[in-house]
């Protein structure tokens, strides 16, 4: 068992390179206390005497081995002077006595020696944590493939292989902010982590109690429980509070299946999402808002990503690395009251049964674990439930993650929007049409509503107003998951739906903070006064994530539109917002959020400082560059704005948003000919949406190239139909050119679009 300790990574001016291994691991041997003396962290050893079976399951699990000191027992990779070449850089792995060393490129692209302080994970890969500064650890992007050699493992490899090359100039270089342990990794790989970032000094003092994911990482601080148990004042009839527990995770429930039923049901409804939310703290795509207090809602401590592109496909399937929570919460299992521990042993992380037996706990084996259902040979790969209902995506080049939305294969949706389906993910030599025909032959009806959902969401992201009626209907459909409805309301906001205020008002009344937070975000397109009147009741919402969204949306309300009391009510909210952000000023995205807040508040000096810090952390953060250019322009610093754009485009020549920004900047400078060149480049690089191509066409027309402008807009209308701005422009161009035939054609299209969508 590992000992209880608090580890402080920041050690002032002392260099980590000259500390013996033991001192690096135990720099300050003190117990980090929780808010209350009655609930402090006591360590895994304190749990073992009473919970022997659970501790035994946990030992050597992925949670137990989430982070370890680098030594002969923990390091898996080849350090016998092994080398690995990536983008012309030769990285060498070697040993010096009991220490493990890596020679690789630093932030300047020069070779440098680093001692391996810790290892991260064990399977299917293991990463190395290297000290890049005296207060900061970073995860090397060259990892050890821990799979068997027969599977292609037992090798060093780059986690971004088969992607765009990553050099020392890239934000994704291992020395950069996105590989920083303190802010990106520690929270989920250790217990009771306090990041301790000081934004003024740009320094970390990161602490934790257990190096790994120990008992209290999930169950909360255990001192009071241990005290009561030692005094023999604990029994199973007591409530969690009476037992001195910060929260209860016992939510498996009782399940029953009558002989004639195919699927079991929960005997009593699931009363809360505490267990799933607790797992979701780490097993979700989210941003941390503040320090975690055990028992709080996930949305009280984190900002949850919705099912937005490119994180998810438009039907809700996983695309980017989103972990598990977001897909699971879409599933019928979640709606039925299934929780994580129904399928997984929470201590060993293993499935509760082998193969299909995990599923047949609830799903009648004779019905579902049979060729008549799965249509594959009994012993084949295709007979596994997960093959069809939980296909996997590979991340970090070797790590396959199952989609937990547990949907049926839908090649019909694949044919419509290009999303994957389990059939052709397995049968890679077959087409989506083949898969669709096979399901039809089997009598599987694929004409479900979610085809309409997927098509509508896909079209909405392309700016097609024809998606509005479907989305407006679905956002009110409480049979859809909360995450899906939250995603839809945000899309309605982006499209400017006339139904947005009423739809948002409906979701703001929900008990779900996920729905309320997204409803707030969607209201950005509503005019300021109406926005304020709708959100005023939520300034003191009980959920932190909702309040943070309200703060962002109300920051730009003009003081002239508010009463003195309204202004006074907003001040505590804005103070809280800035306090929450201050814990995470080491992240470029947070600095960008803060900058946008100050822009809305009319504080350009503060906004500039935040944008400059964001760009120090990530010089290629395009929205920060664009916003800073806008500020410089408003301040009359056109030369500085031009220089910033020129420098950025040298580093990021394939950025459509930067070419677009430069085009607009040149137009404002009266340099129309140069602007056209930049806007054309932006239009050529645009792969989503229509704004760059639309503005390019308008600029062409304004500079006397009407026929070319008409051609650009006609291609745009063909590629992305259902966009009123494009049709209005085509109508105007046709009128001005005297082309009556074209005028009537586009007028008819516009009228039909407005009628179909209920828009003006």
Describe this structure in words.
With 760 residues, the chain is of the alpha+beta class. Among the domains are: 1-65 and 190-248, no CATH class; 67-177, no CATH class; 273-447, no CATH class. 43% of the residues lie in helices and 10% in strands. The strands form six sheets. Strands 1, 6, 7, 8, 9 and 10 form a six-stranded antiparallel beta sheet that branches. A four-stranded antiparallel beta sheet has the order 2-3-4-5, with no helix packed on it. A hairpin with a 2-residue loop joins strand 7 and strand 8. The radius of gyration is 28 Å and the shape is globular.
CA radius of gyration is 28 Å
pLDDT averaged over residues: 91
**Uncertain runs:** 1-37
Residues in β-strands, percent = 5-15%
Secondary structure: number of strands: 18
- Which structural class should the secondary elements be placed in? alpha+beta
- N- to C-terminal distance: 68 Å
Largest sheet: 6 strands, antiparallel
Number of helices: 35
Q: Which percent bin holds the helix content?
A: 40-55%
Shape: globular
Short recap of the structure:
With 760 residues, the chain is of the alpha+beta class. Among the domains are: 1-65 and 190-248, no CATH class; 67-177, no CATH class; 273-447, no CATH class. A hairpin with a 4-residue loop joins strand 11 (197-198) and strand 12 (203-204).
């Amino acid at each position: 068992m590992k000992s209880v300790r608090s580890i402080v990574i920041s050690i002032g001016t002392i260099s980590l390179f000259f500390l013996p291994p033991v001192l690096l691991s135990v720099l300050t041997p003190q117990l980090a206390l929780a808010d209350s003396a009655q609930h402090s962290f006591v360590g895994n050893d304190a749990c073992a005497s009473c919970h022997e079976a659970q501790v035994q399951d946990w030992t050597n699990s992925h949670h137990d081995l989430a982070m370890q000191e680098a030594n002969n027992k923990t390091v898996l990779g080849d350090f016998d002077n092994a080398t690995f070449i990536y983008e012309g850089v030769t990285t060498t792995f070697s040993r010096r006595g009991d220490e493990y060393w890596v020679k690789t490129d630093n932030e300047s692209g020069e070779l440098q020696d680093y001692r391996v302080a810790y290892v991260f994970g064990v399977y299917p890969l293991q990463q190395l944590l290297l000290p890049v500064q005296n207060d900061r650890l970073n995860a090397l992007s060259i990892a050890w493939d821990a799979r068997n050699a027969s599977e292609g493992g037992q090798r060093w490899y780059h986690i971004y292989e088969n992607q765009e090359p990553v050099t020392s100039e890239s934000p994704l270089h291992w020395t950069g902010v996105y590989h920083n342990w303190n802010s990106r990794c520690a929270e989920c790989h250790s217990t009771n982590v306090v990041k301790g970032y000081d934004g003024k000094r740009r320094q970390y003092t990161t602490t934790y109690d257990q190096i790994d994911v120990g008992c209290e990482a999930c169950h909360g601080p255990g001192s009071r429980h241990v005290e009561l148990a030692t005094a023999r004042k604990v029994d199973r009839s007591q409530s969690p509070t009476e037992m001195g527990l910060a929260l209860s995770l016992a939510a498996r429930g009782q399940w029953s299946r009558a002989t004639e039923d195919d699927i079991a049901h929960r005997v009593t409804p699931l009363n809360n999402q505490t267990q799933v939310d607790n797992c979701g703290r780490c097993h979700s795509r989210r941003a941390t808002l503040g320090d975690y207090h055990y028992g709080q809602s996930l949305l009280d401590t984190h900002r949850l990503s919705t099912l937005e592109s490119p994180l998810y496909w438009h039907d809700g399937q996983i695309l980017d690395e989103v972990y598990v929570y977001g897909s699971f919460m879409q599933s019928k299992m979640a709606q039925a009251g299934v929780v994580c521990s129904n399928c997984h042993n929470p201590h060993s992380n293993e499935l509760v049964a082998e193969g299909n037996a995990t599923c047949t706990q609830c799903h009648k084996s004779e019905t579902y674990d049979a060729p008549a259902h799965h249509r594959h040979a009994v012993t084949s790969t295709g007979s596994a439930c997960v093959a069809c209902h939980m296909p996997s995506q590979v991340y970090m080049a070797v790590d396959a993650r199952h989609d937990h939305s547990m949907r049926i294969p839908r090649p019909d949706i694949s044919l419509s929007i290009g999303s994957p389906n389990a059939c052709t993910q397995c049968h890679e030599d077959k087409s989506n049409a083949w898969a669709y025909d096979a399901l039809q032959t089997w009598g599987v009806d694929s004409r479900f509503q979610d085809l309409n959902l997927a098509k509508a969401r896909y079209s909405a992201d392309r700016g097609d107003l024809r998606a509005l009626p479907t989305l407006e209907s679905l956002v009110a459909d409480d049979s859809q998951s909360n995450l899906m409805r939250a995603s839809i309301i945000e899309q309605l906001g982006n499209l400017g739906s006339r139904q947005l205020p009423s739809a948002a008002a409906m979701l703001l009344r929900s008990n779900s903070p996920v729905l309320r937070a997204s409803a707030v975000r969607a209201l950005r397109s509503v005019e300021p006064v109406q926005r304020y009147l709708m959100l005023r009741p939520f300034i003191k919402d009980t959920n932190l994530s909702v309040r943070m969204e309200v703060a962002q949306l109300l920051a730009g309300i003009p003081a002239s539109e508010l009463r003195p009391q309204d202004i006074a009510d907003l001040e505590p909210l804005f103070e809280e917002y800035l306090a929450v952000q201050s814990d995470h000023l080491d992240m470029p995205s947070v600095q960008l959020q803060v900058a946008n807040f100050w822009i809305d508040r009319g504080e350009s000096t503060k906004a500039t400082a935040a944008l400059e810090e964001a760009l120090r952390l990530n010089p290629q953060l395009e929205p920060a560059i664009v916003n800073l250019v806008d500020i410089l322009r408003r301040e009359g610093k056109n030369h500085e704005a031009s220089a910033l754009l020129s420098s950025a485009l040298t580093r990021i020549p394939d950025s459509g948003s930067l070419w677009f920004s430069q085009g607009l900047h040149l137009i404002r400078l009266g340099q129309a000919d140069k602007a056209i060149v930049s806007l054309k480049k932006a239009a050529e690089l645009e792969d989503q949406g229509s704004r760059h191509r639309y503005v390019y066409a308008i600029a062409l027309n304004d500079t006397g190239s009407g026929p070319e402008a008409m051609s650009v807009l006609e291609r745009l209308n063909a590629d992305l139909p259902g966009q009123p701005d494009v049709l209005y422009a085509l109508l105007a161009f046709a009128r001005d050119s005297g082309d009556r035939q074209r005028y009537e054609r586009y007028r008819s299209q516009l009228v039909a679009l407005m009628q179909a969508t209920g828009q003006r």
